[in-house]
Amino acid sequence: MNWRVRVCARAGSFALDAAVAGDGAPVALIGPNGSGKTILLRAISGGHPPVAGRIRVGGRILYDSDAGVRLAPERRRIGYVPQGYGIFPHLNVLENVAFGLAAARPRQPRGDRRAAAAALLGEMDCAHLARRLPATLSGGEKQRVALARALLAEPDLLLLDEPLAALDAAARRDIRRFLAGHLATRNTPALVVTHDARDVRALGARSVYVLEGGSVIQRGAPESLAASPATEFVREFFG
Protein backbone atom coordinates (compact mmCIF):
# COMPACT_ATOMS: atom_id res chain seq x y z
CA MET A 1 0.00 0.00 0.00
CA ASN A 2 1.40 3.39 -1.01
CA TRP A 3 1.23 6.33 1.36
CA ARG A 4 2.28 9.96 1.09
CA VAL A 5 2.50 12.72 3.67
CA ARG A 6 3.18 16.44 3.34
CA VAL A 7 2.57 18.51 6.45
CA CYS A 8 3.39 21.88 7.88
CA ALA A 9 3.03 22.01 11.65
CA ARG A 10 4.05 24.17 14.58
CA ALA A 11 4.84 23.44 18.21
CA GLY A 12 5.60 26.68 20.03
CA SER A 13 8.37 28.38 18.07
CA PHE A 14 9.32 25.17 16.23
CA ALA A 15 8.17 24.83 12.61
CA LEU A 16 7.94 21.55 10.69
CA ASP A 17 7.65 21.40 6.91
CA ALA A 18 8.28 17.88 5.67
CA ALA A 19 7.21 15.37 3.05
CA VAL A 20 7.68 11.60 3.31
CA ALA A 21 6.32 8.67 1.32
CA GLY A 22 6.53 4.91 1.14
CA ASP A 23 4.99 1.63 0.06
CA GLY A 24 4.76 -1.78 1.71
CA ALA A 25 8.36 -1.73 2.93
CA PRO A 26 9.37 -0.02 6.19
CA VAL A 27 10.65 3.56 5.89
CA ALA A 28 13.17 4.84 8.44
CA LEU A 29 13.05 8.37 9.84
CA ILE A 30 16.26 9.57 11.48
CA GLY A 31 17.56 12.86 12.81
CA PRO A 32 18.98 14.59 15.89
CA ASN A 33 16.85 15.14 18.98
CA GLY A 34 14.49 18.06 18.48
CA SER A 35 14.42 17.76 14.68
CA GLY A 36 10.66 17.20 14.51
CA LYS A 37 10.37 13.41 14.16
CA THR A 38 7.78 12.94 16.91
CA ILE A 39 5.73 15.94 15.77
CA LEU A 40 5.59 14.44 12.28
CA LEU A 41 4.36 11.08 13.60
CA ARG A 42 1.78 12.76 15.83
CA ALA A 43 0.53 14.85 12.89
CA ILE A 44 0.05 11.70 10.81
CA SER A 45 -1.77 9.89 13.61
CA GLY A 46 -4.07 12.85 14.27
CA GLY A 47 -2.62 13.74 17.67
CA HIS A 48 -1.08 17.05 16.54
CA PRO A 49 -3.08 19.29 14.16
CA PRO A 50 -1.02 20.46 11.17
CA VAL A 51 -1.19 24.00 9.86
CA ALA A 52 -1.48 22.74 6.29
CA GLY A 53 -0.77 19.72 4.12
CA ARG A 54 -2.15 16.43 2.90
CA ILE A 55 -1.97 12.86 4.24
CA ARG A 56 -2.94 9.93 2.03
CA VAL A 57 -2.73 6.24 2.91
CA GLY A 58 -3.72 3.94 0.07
CA GLY A 59 -6.86 5.39 -1.48
CA ARG A 60 -7.96 7.22 1.70
CA ILE A 61 -7.34 10.89 2.43
CA LEU A 62 -6.81 11.31 6.16
CA TYR A 63 -6.07 15.02 6.09
CA ASP A 64 -6.25 17.69 3.40
CA SER A 65 -6.15 21.32 4.44
CA ASP A 66 -7.29 22.56 1.01
CA ALA A 67 -10.28 20.20 0.84
CA GLY A 68 -11.19 20.60 4.51
CA VAL A 69 -10.68 16.89 5.29
CA ARG A 70 -9.54 16.01 8.81
CA LEU A 71 -10.38 12.49 9.97
CA ALA A 72 -10.46 11.86 13.70
CA PRO A 73 -7.56 9.73 15.01
CA GLU A 74 -9.79 6.71 15.65
CA ARG A 75 -10.93 6.73 12.00
CA ARG A 76 -7.46 6.88 10.44
CA ARG A 77 -6.56 3.17 10.84
CA ILE A 78 -3.11 4.23 11.99
CA GLY A 79 -1.14 2.18 14.51
CA TYR A 80 1.04 4.43 16.65
CA VAL A 81 3.58 3.40 19.29
CA PRO A 82 4.82 6.57 21.03
CA GLN A 83 7.97 6.88 23.10
CA GLY A 84 5.92 6.96 26.32
CA TYR A 85 4.22 3.62 25.46
CA GLY A 86 0.65 5.04 25.73
CA ILE A 87 -0.73 1.99 27.55
CA PHE A 88 -3.59 2.26 30.03
CA PRO A 89 -2.51 1.90 33.68
CA HIS A 90 -5.87 0.51 34.85
CA LEU A 91 -5.98 -2.36 32.32
CA ASN A 92 -3.89 -5.50 32.49
CA VAL A 93 -1.62 -6.46 29.60
CA LEU A 94 -4.18 -8.67 27.83
CA GLU A 95 -6.85 -5.97 28.04
CA ASN A 96 -4.41 -3.31 26.83
CA VAL A 97 -3.49 -5.34 23.76
CA ALA A 98 -7.11 -6.33 23.05
CA PHE A 99 -8.04 -2.63 23.15
CA GLY A 100 -6.16 -2.29 19.87
CA LEU A 101 -9.08 -4.06 18.18
CA ALA A 102 -11.83 -2.08 19.91
CA ALA A 103 -11.76 0.80 17.43
CA ALA A 104 -10.82 -1.32 14.39
CA ARG A 105 -13.51 -3.96 15.00
CA PRO A 106 -16.06 -2.52 17.45
CA ARG A 107 -18.64 -5.23 16.68
CA GLN A 108 -16.27 -8.12 17.24
CA PRO A 109 -17.12 -10.05 20.41
CA ARG A 110 -14.93 -9.14 23.37
CA GLY A 111 -13.91 -12.75 23.80
CA ASP A 112 -12.62 -12.92 20.23
CA ARG A 113 -10.58 -9.75 20.72
CA ARG A 114 -9.05 -11.17 23.89
CA ALA A 115 -8.25 -14.46 22.14
CA ALA A 116 -6.49 -12.61 19.31
CA ALA A 117 -4.55 -10.54 21.85
CA ALA A 118 -3.48 -13.69 23.72
CA ALA A 119 -2.30 -15.32 20.49
CA LEU A 120 -0.17 -12.31 19.54
CA LEU A 121 1.33 -12.10 23.03
CA GLY A 122 2.29 -15.73 22.61
CA GLU A 123 4.00 -14.99 19.28
CA MET A 124 5.99 -12.25 21.01
CA ASP A 125 6.95 -14.48 23.96
CA CYS A 126 4.89 -12.27 26.27
CA ALA A 127 2.08 -14.67 27.21
CA HIS A 128 3.32 -14.72 30.81
CA LEU A 129 2.59 -10.99 31.10
CA ALA A 130 -1.11 -11.25 30.22
CA ARG A 131 -2.53 -10.72 33.74
CA ARG A 132 0.01 -8.15 34.89
CA LEU A 133 -0.74 -4.43 35.32
CA PRO A 134 1.50 -1.86 33.60
CA ALA A 135 2.84 -0.58 36.93
CA THR A 136 4.52 -3.96 37.48
CA LEU A 137 6.25 -4.05 34.08
CA SER A 138 9.75 -2.99 33.12
CA GLY A 139 10.26 -0.39 30.42
CA GLY A 140 11.07 -3.09 27.89
CA GLU A 141 7.96 -5.07 28.79
CA LYS A 142 5.79 -1.96 28.42
CA GLN A 143 7.34 -1.37 25.01
CA ARG A 144 6.40 -4.89 23.91
CA VAL A 145 2.81 -4.40 25.11
CA ALA A 146 2.50 -1.10 23.23
CA LEU A 147 3.90 -2.71 20.09
CA ALA A 148 1.55 -5.70 20.37
CA ARG A 149 -1.49 -3.43 20.73
CA ALA A 150 -0.57 -1.47 17.60
CA LEU A 151 0.13 -4.61 15.55
CA LEU A 152 -3.05 -6.42 16.58
CA ALA A 153 -5.32 -3.92 14.82
CA GLU A 154 -3.54 -4.59 11.48
CA PRO A 155 -3.35 -0.86 10.67
CA ASP A 156 -3.03 0.59 7.19
CA LEU A 157 0.12 2.39 8.37
CA LEU A 158 2.24 1.71 11.44
CA LEU A 159 4.12 4.55 13.16
CA LEU A 160 6.89 3.50 15.53
CA ASP A 161 8.75 6.09 17.61
CA GLU A 162 11.97 4.39 18.71
CA PRO A 163 10.17 1.07 19.30
CA LEU A 164 13.25 -0.83 20.50
CA ALA A 165 14.95 1.84 22.59
CA ALA A 166 13.77 0.51 25.97
CA LEU A 167 14.85 -3.09 25.32
CA ASP A 168 18.07 -4.75 26.38
CA ALA A 169 20.37 -6.10 23.67
CA ALA A 170 18.98 -9.64 23.64
CA ALA A 171 15.34 -8.52 23.65
CA ARG A 172 16.10 -5.96 20.95
CA ARG A 173 17.41 -8.67 18.64
CA ASP A 174 14.37 -10.87 19.28
CA ILE A 175 11.84 -8.08 18.69
CA ARG A 176 13.71 -6.83 15.62
CA ARG A 177 13.46 -10.32 14.16
CA PHE A 178 9.78 -10.67 15.04
CA LEU A 179 8.86 -7.20 13.80
CA ALA A 180 10.73 -7.61 10.50
CA GLY A 181 8.95 -10.91 9.84
CA HIS A 182 5.55 -9.56 10.90
CA LEU A 183 5.76 -6.50 8.64
CA ALA A 184 7.04 -8.50 5.69
CA THR A 185 4.43 -11.24 6.01
CA ARG A 186 1.52 -8.81 6.24
CA ASN A 187 2.99 -6.23 3.86
CA THR A 188 2.26 -3.57 6.49
CA PRO A 189 3.69 -0.12 5.66
CA ALA A 190 5.65 1.37 8.55
CA LEU A 191 7.40 4.63 9.36
CA VAL A 192 10.04 3.92 12.00
CA VAL A 193 11.92 6.53 14.02
CA THR A 194 15.24 5.15 15.22
CA HIS A 195 18.68 6.19 16.46
CA ASP A 196 20.23 2.82 15.60
CA ALA A 197 21.44 1.92 12.10
CA ARG A 198 20.99 -1.77 13.01
CA ASP A 199 17.22 -1.19 13.16
CA VAL A 200 17.27 0.21 9.63
CA ARG A 201 19.07 -2.84 8.26
CA ALA A 202 17.26 -5.47 10.32
CA LEU A 203 13.78 -4.17 9.47
CA GLY A 204 14.60 -4.05 5.77
CA ALA A 205 14.01 -0.32 5.31
CA ARG A 206 14.77 0.49 1.68
CA SER A 207 14.25 4.22 2.17
CA VAL A 208 15.61 6.56 4.86
CA TYR A 209 14.53 10.16 5.47
CA VAL A 210 16.81 12.48 7.43
CA LEU A 211 14.99 15.22 9.34
CA GLU A 212 16.94 18.16 10.74
CA GLY A 213 15.52 21.47 11.92
CA GLY A 214 12.02 20.55 10.80
CA SER A 215 12.98 19.80 7.19
CA VAL A 216 14.00 16.71 5.23
CA ILE A 217 17.63 17.35 4.32
CA GLN A 218 18.42 13.97 2.71
CA ARG A 219 16.60 10.85 1.61
CA GLY A 220 17.50 7.63 -0.16
CA ALA A 221 18.56 4.04 0.31
CA PRO A 222 20.62 3.31 3.43
CA GLU A 223 23.64 2.44 1.29
CA SER A 224 23.44 5.75 -0.58
CA LEU A 225 23.23 7.80 2.62
CA ALA A 226 26.10 5.88 4.19
CA ALA A 227 28.24 6.44 1.11
CA SER A 228 27.40 10.14 0.70
CA PRO A 229 26.17 11.60 4.02
CA ALA A 230 24.80 15.14 3.78
CA THR A 231 25.63 16.07 7.37
CA GLU A 232 27.83 14.97 10.24
CA PHE A 233 24.79 13.41 11.92
CA VAL A 234 24.21 11.12 8.94
CA ARG A 235 27.90 10.23 8.82
CA GLU A 236 27.91 9.28 12.50
CA PHE A 237 24.60 7.42 12.24
CA PHE A 238 25.84 5.05 9.57
CA GLY A 239 29.45 5.05 10.77
Word description of this protein:
By secondary structure, the chain is an alpha/beta fold. The chain has a single domain, classed as Rossmann fold (3-Layer(aba) Sandwich). Helix content is 36%, strand content 25%. It has 9 helices and 11 strands. The strands form 2 sheets. A 6-stranded mixed β-sheet has the order 7-8-9-3-10-11, with helices on both faces. The protein has a 5-stranded antiparallel β-sheet with strand order 2-1-4-5-6, covered by helices on one side. It is globular, with a radius of gyration of 18 Å. The relative contact order is 0.18.
Short characterization:
The protein is of the alpha/beta class.
What's the gyration radius in Å? 18 Å
CATH topology: Rossmann fold
- How much of the sequence lies in strands comes to 25-35%
Overall 3D geometry?
globular
Broad CATH class: Alpha Beta
Determine the N-to-C terminus distance: 32 Å
**Secondary-structure arrangement, i.e. CATH architecture:** 3-Layer(aba) Sandwich
Summing up helix and strand content along with how strands pair, one would put the structural category as: alpha/beta
Provide a count of the helices.
9
* Biggest sheet descriptor: 6 strands, mixed
Fold topology:
Blueprint: E1 3-11, E2 14-22, E3 27-30, H1 37-45, E4 52-57, E5 60-64, E6 69-70, E7 78-81, H2 93-98, H3 100-104, H4 110-123, H5 139-152, E8 157-161, H6 169-186, E9 190-193, H7 197-202, E10 207-212, E11 215-220, H8 222-227, H9 232-238
Parallel strand pairs: 3-9, 3-10, 7-8, 8-9
Antiparallel strand pairs: 1-2, 1-4, 4-5, 5-6, 10-11
